[in-house]
Structure formats: structure tokens, C-alpha cells
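Section 5.1 Outputs to date
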Amino acid sequence: MPVLHTLKRAGVLLLAAAALFAVPAHTAAADEPGWTAEPAAGTAAVGSGGARPYFYLSGPAGTVLEDRLALTNTTDRERTVTLRGADAYNTADGAFAVRPAQESDGAGAWISFGAATTVKVPPRTRAVVPFTVTVPPASPPGDHPAAVVAAEGGHEVGVRVHLRVGGPTLAALTVEDVSVRGKGAAAVVAYTLVNRGNVALAPELSIRAEGRFGEVPGRGARTLPVELLPGQRVELTEPWPGAPVLDRVRLTLTVTAPGGARATAATSAWFLPWRLAGWLGGTLLALAATTPAALRLVRSRRTRTDQPTATTPVPEPEYELTGAAR
């Protein structure tokens, strides 16, 4: 069963030159209180005693990277936790999720706990478990999202792994399938974002609106609450409380992201008051109903006019013969 995690904004930025969207500071906890899983503190990346919201690893293809996971048992009984790596992906609405073990054939399959795939954690104890990430020699450069998954008693906990393979990076995206749904204050702009590059993106969206009958308010630029992973496609909606009551509007969506990614897409939409729309619809239906009858009447009159008029037959002239008989 996939593990879903809500994305939140974090104020911590690791390795700014990597331009990787920082996921929220979040300690993974089981649905049932009793144990937690999180990156072990005290690594070179953050210094001794530093807390990490997720794992961040980088290196060239063909290298072996190392890190440590901390399991904390806060109960009075022993816990048996199984560990594995998993591929990460975006759900259709942009949430972060991890794939089951049998479906993880990417970066999740590069994670290994060796003989420690099953760990027994004594009561009131914190266990630190090392693991490795073996990057294949032919791995393409860029971000390879993954997670470490801990499971016990039917509960799964996922801890993010931001893995970047060295080499050229490309930040690129497209905006597709733009449409407007709803009316008035309930109007929303629906659209699809596709990450066409090889790095994770933190997209920012702005909406410009141009009406036929005057200025129409759009939406100022704001950072979207989603991390768009490489090669992923998400379907999003943006509230548009400034939608007009009566107008024809052209909307232009502009999406940008760190690293130079930029894309635009446009659509047009009619906005009519419900009463006016109903009146126009009724009028059109009435016209549609009366038009055939009017056409039949005109054709009937034309047919009668074109027929020849009946006339009284003229009798043939009678001739009188004169002259004497011989």
C-alpha cells in the first residue's frame, strides 16, 4: 500500500546551488504512536546534533553513498521493524507517494540495508541503522526521488530521500489542458503541469485575465504547494474569485521555477449570468421551434403563387357557308 505524505513548505534550504525544492521538516511517525523513523543526526551534512527533515545524498554515477536511519521505540515492548527502499512519485493531484516494493525499479532499488532489513528495537531504545545507496554507472544525471520505508504491525512510515546524480541538469516544464470551471466566486482554473526536465521543481503560478468589457482581476504570482518531480504530470486547480459576471475573458497562465524553467498557456471563456443564460437559451429554443413552421408557410404560399391560373376554354369559331348550289 503506497505511503502518502502531505507536502509543506520548509524554511531550510540544503545546498542552494542544487536548486532543489526543500520538503517540509517532518518527522515520520507511525499511525499508532509508539515508534518513529527519521534521519539520524550528527552526519557531516548538518553537523553534530543537527536535525534533518529528510535524507539528501549526491554523487556521480557509479558511486556508493552512505547514510543512517534512526528508529526510536517509545513504548514498553519490543518493536520489530522491517526496512526497504522505494521509488517516489507524484499522485495525480500533486501529493508525494512511494511505490510498493515490487514496483520500485528506480532509485528505491538502489537502497540497501544489508542484513538489517528487519530490526528489533528494545523498549525505550533508539536504534541507528546504516544503509547504502549504490548508484549504477549508467544512471542519468539529475534528481532521482526515493524514500526509506519502515513498517511494523501493518503501519508504514516513509522518510524522503533526495538523491542527485552528478552531471548536467535541466529545469523545464509545460502547462497544458487549461480550462475554467464554475462561475463567480466559485470559479476555478484547471490545468496540468508536466516536469520535462531532470530536477525537482517548486513551481510558481500567475494568472493574467483580459476581458472584452474592461479590466478583469487575475491572480498574482504565488508558489504552488507541490513539488513536481522529474517526468511527473499533475492536475491542479487554482481558485479565481475575480471571475466576471458578464464578459468573454482570455486567461494566460505563466508558470516559473528556479533554474530558469518557464511556460505559458492560454484559454478563453464566456461568463454569463444564470438568468441571462436561461433567457437566451429559451429564446433560441423558441426560434428553433418556430423557424420550421415559418419556412413551411413561405413554401406553401410560394407553391400556390407559382401554379398556373385556370381559364375558360374558348369555343371554336363556327363558319357559315354561302353560295348557290350547282
